[in-house]
Amino acid sequence: MSDHPTEHGPSRTPVPMPTSASWSDPHMQPAARHPAFVERLIGFTFVVGLLSFCAFGAAYWQNWAPWALGLTLGAGMLFVGTGITAWGKYLMPRGPFVEERHVLQSSTQDVEAFTNALVERGATPVKRRKVLGGILGAGMGVFGIVLAFPLLRSLGPLPKNTLATTDWKAGSYLVDQSGNRISQYAYAVGSILTVFPEGWEDQDRGQAVDQTILVHLEAEGPIKGMPAGRSTWTPAGYVAYSKICTHAGCPVGLFERELGLLICPCHQSMFKLAEGAIPIFGPAPRPLPQLPLSIDADGYLYASAGYDQPVGPGYWERP
Amino acid sequence: MTARLGLRLPGRTKKERKPLGPYGRVGKAVEELDERLGIAKGGKTFLDKIFPDHWSFMLGEIALYTFVILLATGVFLTLYYVPSSALTIYNGPYKPLDGQLVSQAFASTMDLSFTVRAGLLMRQMHHWACDIFVGAIVLHMARVFFTGAFRKPRELNWTIGITMLILSILNGFIGYSLPDDVISGTGIRIAYSILLSIPVVGSYLAFFLFGGNFPGTSIIPRFYVLHVLIIPAVLAGLLGAHLFLLVRQKHTQFPGPGKTERNVVGSPMYPVFMAKTTGFLFMISGVVALLATFFQVNPIWQFGQYRASIISYAVQPDWYMGWLDGALRVMPSWEFVGWGHTIPFNVFLPAIIFPGIIFNICYAWPAIERRYTKDNLLHNLLDRPRDRPKRTAAGAAMLGLLSTLFVASATDVLANFFKISLNTVLVSMRVLTVIVPVIAYFLTYKICKELQAVPGAGKRKVVNVVRMTEDGEYVATPVAPPQELADHELDAEPVPELIEEDAPVGAVAAAAAARGRPGNVGTSSVRTVPR
Q1: Band of the pLDDT at B393, cuts 50, 70, 90?
Q2: From A279, which residue of chain B is nearest by alpha-carbon distance?
Q3: A115 CB near a chain B CB, below 8 Å?
Q4: How far is CA B122 from its chain centroid?
């Protein structure tokens, strides 16, 4: 490059002295070759824009369909904008014009004076009074920490054990979204539904924490292939898992019946239903926690115990 | 008063009032203002400010003007939106949801879409403007990166720009969480899990932000205050700083005849640039309005009210979150469990550490490059990307990585569309995430080197006339450019201090005559591309 930057060398592009120009100066001429034609064109866009804006007013007043509002407003702005831009591009002084860049850096004296004021005038009298500065610093520090309490601590309760618990406990009856208990005879093999512990079905916390997916996987229980120690958890071929994905907490809502898989629609983790919902694919690291089921004398399903581990995605305090 | 009392103050007759000068009322107003504020000198400098002409400098303008549209449509939306999770019964013209228990946030968004006049248009414009806004920022950033505009003295503005990009992405996410529909609620749930994944403090952060366990009732009003007040205020402040630095340091420009490190060549602020840019604001608004009219985004009535146990198929976030969603998908299922603690690396690495690394690379890039090139000079002329092959290749690698992850956020849709196994798609995306950046780097590097080796590549070709001689030989002769091309080859001049009022009648004719004058036609070409 012929004029590569030098820090602040003497070589400076000479900029001509201030000038006066007349309208006949070529720089002041419109860029268009046929300004009169462009003028008519711009006039046309302005007229269309004006009419569109009028139409928008009418559309709004008469409460026409949204597309009519959008079309008239959009067309109006597009036409008017095109006209104004063309005016600037074709009918205004075509230039090109130049301006000099000013060196932003200050003179050495100015820099020195400023630094001196900062260091000598400002800092030295402070430095000599270290105790005062120390006390003030401590006060400001305490102020900052105290400030953090309303700004942060009061925003929410401490997590404590909340993340590790659900409302499922031994004897909780399974109910659907409307609060009806689940009879073992009501659902055919291959059925799937979301259940909650009785009494919690309609609350936010119940929806978010207790949501459990119940699948009638086989005609007869217990299901073979379940992990050791869970042989009694699947009466009458029913199996229940926490519906919260162990990856990022989405509801694991897709049921692939032929493969016996639960799939999370968010990030496609797949869980094998018949084998304790172990993840066989995707980013989920752990099986879905399983809810041990029992059936009472009337054929209604209930939990024989709560979840034996925290449900949902991992977090630091999770054992 | 005085007239009614029949008094007449000496020397205050109407006739003796000072006549207006040659500039009329405007002149008078300027004089009065200048006496008090001293505006004339700075004002003249501002009107004379030169803006270089290049299409790529419009990308930042698109971002600026979509921000204006966001503010305008956003104010409209705040007049009707109710930031509350309190439950209510939806009663409205959309019959499929009539009588359902929904949150006030959802119900008010439904009213905005169906009942409020022009509400749907404003909602759609707001969403479209946001998508274009973030896209324009990314393209603007790519332009600044590939042309080296971030180099000294403009590192600070680069830093401000990245901060604005991060805030924009964040505010976009928060914004589409506000309607409280199934898709947005799922997004909030994932955000909660991401916060939880941070070691040691994760659960505390999540509880403090959400006011307890997910979902609670605090998150919608808190997101609302962040979305409409805090983040926009910070963004507006940073935008002011961004533009202030731009004016103070002046524009960069591409090298060319007459353009040096010490000048700026282009159009003056007033009236040329002002007209062009005002027109551009209207054009962008028009395009956003037409997109909003004819292309539907976020039809929440099809998704329904969010319930923590309800999910939909093909859950994709807005495009600018796609790379993060893709990273979550391609990440293997690693989780550390030991000593009574769990660190979910499968979430923590792609959703916290990975974007942290990406944005920190962006922040640090000017320093990295300065360290590598030992170049501490001030730069006002831009690079051609090919002339800095390593930088260009690094940028291409970064874009390659992010684009691959963006595609990976649609694994399920791809598998369904092409009828291939989801597993195959995911494994392919994992492989591609690793190899695409490497290929992009070396391919771009090679292309840059090849382009460097071809003299005049990308330049406008000289017109040649080819003739066949009587012997059958072909002879090419370059010809002079036609007159209308030569028209534009003027030397750049400073903006005139004063314009003399000569007869505007016939000025066009005079100009046509002036154009023929050889004295006014420079040898250098400032605008290489004629109209």
Answers
A1: very high
A2: B333
A3: no
A4: 20
